[in-house]
Amino acid sequence: MASSSGSSYPVRYLALFGALVALIYGLVFLTGDKSPTPKLGIDLQGGTRVTLTARTPDGSAPSQDSLRQAQQIIETRVNGLGVSGSEVVIDGQNLVITVPGDDSSQARTLGQTARLYIRPVIQAAQPTAPGTPAPTDPAAPVDPAAPVDPAAPVDPAAPVDPAVPAPQNRPFPAQDPTEPAAPTDTAPTDTAPTDTAPTEQDAGSEPGAAPAESSPDETADAIAEAKARRQSEDPAVQQQAAATIVCSAPDPLQGNDDPALPLVACSTDGTSVYVLGPSIIDGQQIADASSQFDTQQSRNVVSLSFDTTGGDTWAQFTAANIGQQAAFTLDSKVVSAPVIQGATPSGSATQITGNFTADSARELANTLKYGSLPLSFAASEAETVSATLGLASLEAGLIAGAVGLVLVLLYCLLYYRMLGILTALSLVLSLAAIYGILVLLGRWIDFTLDLAGIAGLIIGIGMTADSFVVFFERIKDEIREGRSFRSAVPRGWARARRTILSGNAVSFIAAAVLYVLAVGQVRGFAFTLGLSTLLDIVIVVLVTWPLVNLASRSEFWSRPSVNGLGAVQEIARARKRAAAAKTAAVAGADKEA
User: Fold this and answer.
1) With a threshold of 0.85, does the pTM exceed it?
2) What fold, for 8-39+388-576?
3) Scanning 119, 181, 194, 419, which has its CA 20 to 30 A from the CA of 352?
């Protein structure tokens, strides 16, 4: 890049940058929601607030340490995929989550307790609608031929023969392509259940209704009653609970089930009821979780990897229970109950399947990856909060940035003449690229732009202007040494490039350190500063340097009255005259001697 003998190199760089911008805006307008606007933060557009009330099984007040730990875990979930601009604060014995926009589903999902267990399926059936007779005699015992005794500890290597096999998902871990696909469970619901009713048999509860206040004692009583029915080791009590459970009612047992006992649980979409054995694997044994798209099955899945103990247990269980179901329960609900078709080797990844969207799969993986909360929470109704600063502040910030940009351009035009036009063109192209990238980041990692982020962008654009100044001054240095504009450009670029890269490297390191150590809006500032710093290098290399190189080959741009280098060239000529005079004087002195 330092030397370019032909004009093809600058044109190639400009063409590469044009292709990158075309790709960015192609993704903006042809993928996703196709909205060409970035997401704004809480301070600019407001958001949705959900209050999470901690629930303890004994009704006691949660400790501040538990609340702080829950706050840290939720903040980690919030920033697990980037800077989302969400806020998580402790308010007394509650956690208050505020997310940008009017969609409360993200805040509710963040408040999932995320207690994941893998349990063997003893029986699966359709739930009973409220007010209708149960299809099963509540007093009928479990089929005595079933080898799983819910009262006994579960041996992972012991086979589990469910009394009523009812696959709710695709065969696991792989499906025979010749067999038709089985219906799937839906993804976890967005709405976190609340404890408005003491039991799940309250058929009068309506989903989405405003929750009533419950005292800690009432909450503890509801949890204890739900445990007595749905976690009984008595098969008759299990059948009674399975026949009368109302999946649409709030679940007081959410996140409070005992993994050492059997469990009667609903699927997340409320279409199935399961009688499950004690847990064989705890979610704490998850080493990593990620979402991905299974191209063979054309569905989104969540991939889990266990630690050594969990991997060994899962390998033994799958080997001993081929053809049977295993239920993945999250916060006392069945997310997926796949049929085991083959043994999973120890250390291999395991998939949770269902009717996941890309967003719901990513949210579940993020929730499981960053850990379970030390408390279970009941979520209140979402409420809309107004912008803390508002559009007036956004307009003021944009005006301030525009004024600063105009002043920079005026300075460049006055000092560098027509070269200032190249500076203006480079800055405009930089702004266009940054805008498209911000729109895509809002879709891909929920990045939200707030005033702190705008400040980072303005500072980054100012650094881009600094890079132009460094380049132009190196060109002037070369001209002072007597070179022409055309020969000074590649030499000046070779000298300026090192300075530009060094300065940007220092700025990027500072932004990266600030992003790691800071929280809240300061991270947004650091993120946009680092982004604009990287883009500065791209603009200078692919736009500014090629444009100046092409200008140096033009007869018009080489005129001193156009490029503003006349004064520097005059200095170079004066130096030549002085050097010539000095040489002549020395030669004359030698002759006289």
Assistant:
1) no
2) Multidrug efflux transporter AcrB transmembrane fold (1.20.1640)
3) 194
